[in-house]
Design brief:
Layout: H1 16-29, H2 33-64, H3 68-83
Length: 84
């Protein structure tokens, strides 16, 4: 039997400047620091998922490309995504 949307308590240590920034955001938005952290984590996870999907889409285009110039361009683009 599954428990729907159960909250799990976590302890996270943040650098002082990050904690201060979180508190500042929370105060400005009239939210708790926990809520701000949750929103930031969710946005970060969604961003990572989108980035991975973009990479997989690019890899698929790279695999299916036949034009040598396009293969080179897509390969360079993949390299930048992987290595920065």
């Amino acid at each position: 039997m599954r428990t729907a949307n159960r909250a799990v308590r976590q302890s996270v240590t943040l650098p002082a400047h990050v904690a201060a920034h979180v508190r500042s955001l929370a105060k400005a938005r009239r939210l708790s620091a926990n809520r701000v952290l949750l929103e930031l984590i969710e946005k970060g996870m969604e961003s990572e998922r989108r980035r991975q999907q973009e990479f997989f889409d690019l890899a698929e285009r790279f695999r299916s490309a036949t034009d040598p110039e396009e293969v080179t361009r897509l390969g360079d683009q993949m390299g930048r995504m992987v290595f920065g």
